[in-house]
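Reviewers of the previous submission asked for a worked example of the structure-prediction workflow described in the proposal, so we include one complete record here. The input consisted solely of the amino acid sequence. No template or homolog information was supplied to the procedure at any stage.
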Amino acid sequence: MALVIPAIDVRGGRCVRLHQGEYDQETVYFDDPVKMAKLWRVQNARVLHVVDLDAARGDAENNRGVIAEMCDALDIPIQLGGGIRSMEQIEAAFAMGVYRVIIGTAAVRDPDLVSAAIDAYGCSRIVVGIDARDGEARVQGWTEGSGVDAADLAQEMEDRGVRRIVYTDISRDGTMKGPNVDAYRALGRQLEKCKITASGGVGDHDDLLDIEALASYGVDSVIIGKALYENAFPCQQFWGWHDKDAIDLDTFSTASLRTDAIADDC
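From that input alone, the workflow returned the following structure tokens.
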């Protein structure tokens, strides 16, 4: 089964979700992202996907402190995207406890940074995020077009040594209308060495089965946001989502951690 990775998008210090990447269509789900991270951990998450939405748009990195608290609070890996556009920012992310960084805008505008980062840290800790709308890679927190074809960008990144790509179909993100299976299949056919993490559109268990069917195309994991927050999966009824304030957030499952799930890309 593909690894399910809960998403936590942080904006203004709060846990939010956007609809199709639109910043004026924001839903606040939790005021404390640290507690949200603990809740996903209690519910057996093996990895967390965290995005600093403010930094992604080039705003001040005011959320970095709370993200560092999330790293300190958990015993599972956190991958971080949003506003990572220099070696100094990569180093700072690792220093705060992030396991893996996701380079998005800089992969388009400064591809040499990706090569340098892989040389310095290896391909398991450096990932490229491609956020696409109508086949075009978007940048600056999805707010600007790049004129770069998303598939061409993926190929260039693989040629530069990238071994994992997080591919988000922006038109599906936050809609719960199903993932863009055709896009993932086409990308998997094109790439020879990269693993793919799918992102955007998952709304129910059937969508997870659709992702599972893409294993032969290199899709081995999926990031889920809104569907988890909207309690779309029957198993969540057993996790006390509707009474989360009563959950002991400091007692984690004793199940073995799958850190190897994000450490085998190279």
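The chain has one domain: 3-262. We consider this example representative of the routine output the project will generate in years two and three.
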